[in-house]
Amino acid sequence: MGWIQCEKVKWLQNNNPEVLGLVYKLTPTEEKVRKLKKVRDLWQDIMEVQEIRDVFTGQPVKKKKYDIDHFIPWSFVMNDELWNLMPMDASLNSSKSNRLPKWNPFFQNFAQNQYLMYQIIYDDMGIYKS
Length: 130
Prior knowledge:
By secondary structure, the chain is mostly helical. About 50% of the residues lie in helices and about 10% in strands. The chain contains seven helices and two strands, in the order H-H-H-E-H-E-H-H-H. The chain has a two-stranded antiparallel ribbon with strand order 1-2. The chain is elongated.
């Protein structure tokens, strides 16, 4: 049965190349696996040394009043990798839904936050390890 399922997934992926992470969309995901606490803690530490601005509003992200969200919606990329996660105003998170953000002007703000995050991690590896 496992071999049949594997072959089915290969066939579906080959015939639907525009659907990213197809294998992950066919099986249920446990929410427990998707905990973002460490990422939230990392951004919290970064906000102690650097102001971070909300990608969508341009306003400073308020400490402890934000959510961690995906710039490219999880339903598209099916991962919780650091490059795609950002702090954003908690009240805006639900309104963003699963739509792809417009490239302009949001990507530049997103890239700036990511650059700041990696720069701070590079300067102080202790932040990353906490």
